[in-house]
Amino acid sequence: MAVPPLPETADIVRRVRRAVAGARAATVRRREQVTAAEVEGQAVLEGLVAPLFKKVASVLAAEGHRFSVSTPVGAVRLSRNVSADDFVEVALDTSHDPPALVGRAAWVWGRRVRQDERIVAEHPDIGLLTADAVLDYLLAAIAPLVER
After folding, report:
1. Where are the domains positioned within the chain?
2. Chain centroid to CA 147: how far?
């Protein structure tokens, strides 16, 4: 069996340079996306998600369900007071491509730990997120926490 010939050195150099330039350009675009998503995400978390989570916590308290809201860096979390392992949060995740606001929920039932993660909004639509969309996510996510 004959070995196929290698490409010309000049062709290899051109292709390598093109690949390196493409990787650098993609890195610059990614950094710009992350920076924009961080600014938009923080504004949405502080101006929309946190106040909405606090209102829902108040309504839940009136209904006899004790929850507290915390705001760790880059996230808003609604936790059951009886178990910090039971929570719903919306967090900015810049490791996603594109960066996204991700909803995470976790709850413990006996020895079983249940977890759910879903994208609430992706860049460039993070700034377009509505209160209704966040509320819809939150109400669906807290159902397992309040059904007991």
Report:
1. 9-146
2. 25
